[in-house]
Amino acid sequence: MADQRTVLAAELFKRAVDRPVEQRSAFLTEACGDDVELRREVESLLKFNEGGDQFLEKPAMDIAVESLFQTALKPDQRIGNYRVDSHIGSGGMGEVYLAHDEKLNRQVALKLVRFGIGADETERHFRREAQILASLNHPNIAHLYGAEITPEGFSFLVMEYIEGVRIDKYCDNNHLSINDRLEMFRRVCGAIHYAHQRLIIHRDIKPANILITKEGEPKLLDFGIAKLLDPETSMAGEQTLTIAAAMTPEYASPEQVRGETMTTASDVYSLGVILYELLTGQRPYRIKGRNAAEIARAITDQEPTRPSTAVARGDGNLKSLKGDLDNIVLKAMRKEPQRRYASVEQFSEDIRRHLANLPVIARPDTTSYRMAKFVQRHKTGVAAAALIALSLVAGVVATFWQAGLAREHARVATGERNHAREETAKAERINQFLQDILSAAAPEAKGVDVKVTDVLGEASKRARTELASEPEVMADALLTLGRTYVSLGQYFSADADLRAALDASLRANGELNETTAASMAWLGLNLFYESKIEEGERTSHRAVQLERKLHPEGNQELAVALYSLGLHLTAQNNVNDAELVLKEASEVVKKRLGANHGYYLASLSALGNARQKAGDLSGAEAFYRQAISASQRIEPRYRIFVAQAKVYLGRLLVTKGSYDEAEKTLRESENLYREVAGTDVSIGKIKENLGTMYLYQSNYAKAEDELRKSLEILEKKLPPESPSTVQANFALGLTLTRAGHPFEGERYLRKALEIRNKMSDAAAGVGTSSVALTKSALGGALGECLTAQNRYAEAEPLLLDSYQIFESTTVQNDSRRAEAARRLYELYSMWGNPQKAALYKAINISATNK
Predict the structure, then answer these.
(1) Whether residue 134 sits in one domain with residue 35
(2) What is the pLDDT of residues 467-509, one digit of tens each?
(3) How far is Cα 591 from Cα 555, in angstroms, rounded to an integer?
(4) Do 234 and 281 contact (CB within 8 A), yes or no?
(5) Residues 93 and 50 in one domain
(6) Is 91 left (phi over 0), alpha (psi -120 to 50) or beta?
(7) Residue 121 and residue 231 in contact, taking contact as beta carbons nearer than 8 Å
(8) What is the CATH classification number for the domain harbouring 85?
(9) Which helix (H) or strand (E) holds 501?
(10) Are residues 210 and 61 in the same domain?
């Protein structure tokens, strides 16, 4: 591997090349001091740079790295859990390799990162940012699996390996039409908008970072990597291009070139440059030289040639580009960030409107323009009307017809214009608000240790105050924040923002509105995670009703509302209705997002839960296995849904007594969750499942170990009155009792019973495993514990109550009834009452043999 001195030489070259030639000697004298060899190395790089024409294609740092570093890893070499297959290429900060993940048996891309000056701080930043970027979960964004540090001090990113062709070459090779290129570009915009909603900027958008797979799907690479690699990327710095300010100069925005704070508007600019190239096959600026200063001047000072002017006069694209597309591209590339599109979503929407022959906001809203758009949209109707008009002899009739048509044109166009203006104003306000939040969270404002949750918390607080007079805008902003909290598992914070979003939207928009319905859908889902089942069912049910009215054909938000409602119905044992609702959710997801989407897997697991609640273990197992089998064809980003299905299958196998397969399945799920989400609530629940399984096998040492680990996680991550903490306390108390430590076990059992008494019956059914979480089951376990302590008089009423409840609510061969009878048999045997002991022994034998 390259040593620290090599990295230093590359750093000094980068700094020197950005200076005027006459200043370089003084800079090297100061920077290199008496180190003659270091100076010679840097000077040789500068000389090499002067001799080639490739600088416009690659930043200075790329050339330096390619000259200084040899391939660091060889085929079959191992680094961590990865075996190197081949060297893919080199980037600004290191090499990229195709490797095999031997632990998970899949291909990955490894990007080695070389830290130079200030390495310690960079490494801290690297770890923090990698964790944030790994949370991105979108079908058009290549997933970042994680980041690791080698003993040699080098770091590498583990990324989804994408096999594809860069977007510009794909479009040219496949001879895509202008409209097809626009549709492809809109999918790219959708991915970037998704990340912007989560306060993540790409910072290095260029054709090489957008690959098109053989299925024709765009995949964005290196999302946010520029900031991950350099903590000062978003800070004001040098006034010329640097590796931090612009990974690839030609696609850098003016503010990026100037070293100013970057916002979502910077990504809008880079997208504008890419769209320019996709439509014209040319770059927007004419640059004769090749040094960074000249590129910077062109980006900040030159106005790009209109796309329609840039193409050759004989090109058939000239007519297609002139007008709307000229204006759309140039609006995205305006020098001033505030004059660009307010968001990537708005940029994409303007392209959609152009494709639909609707007025676009990038063009002056003149009467003739609106009329032309109306005619293009209604060619058949207008042509038919013209023929009728020509056949009329009476000139007066023709005059009236023309006047009526003109009024209709004006009415339709005015409505569209007003709606577009309203949506534009709202989008600009929301975007400005989010940009302010991002700027406030920059290192110079908050320091380098600012957390995502801190940024979200600040955004929530400011949204309630700064947007109070604009409830419609506030509702959309809080809905975005609430969704983000749900995805992070921050259910308390999500609850507050989603309720505030719903309240603001009801005041501003009324009930039958997109934002209102979406707020209800997500609030309903969050209420399920909070174990607020009755309220959650009501909220989800109303969200479904509204979404059906707004989108009769179905959409993603309807799927969320249906899925949420199905979970609540299952929790209340209303399994027949739950299945109907979950099947519809599954169909909507499959239709709108496809059978390879993670939400589809989640719907299959939910259907399995409903089947299991109904007592159909075979049907439930089939749904779980169907979801797991899909892991061979789904995007790697959806692995968390595979992990979820494995948890459900593992629990079911425990219930069936298939312990070996259950243990293997639960361990696989635990590994998947750790890789995707780290040590979170899901790990705590899986460990509770494993502990309960070991308890059933009378392996008390293993059970105690897993259950203590489970409680440590769950009590740290969940509120005190949580079904999962009840389950873990219950299982640990019973384990300690049977392991011969009933005095210690009593403490956990009483704690579980105390929490359970504070919960509603519906809430107690959420997230349970195979051990029943009813008061009777807890009472029975506590009775067994007291029996082990020879406290028979205290144990008897608990055990009798437990048996009587199970006798009246379960079938004769239910294992819980047999268990309750066994406990009474042991109580009376130890208490010296053989007649009663014999009675319950007979009941136990009868129930066990049925």
Answers:
(1) no
(2) 888 888 889 889 988 888 887 677 888 999 999 999 999 999 9
(3) 9
(4) no
(5) no
(6) beta
(7) yes
(8) 3.30.200.20
(9) helix 491-509
(10) no
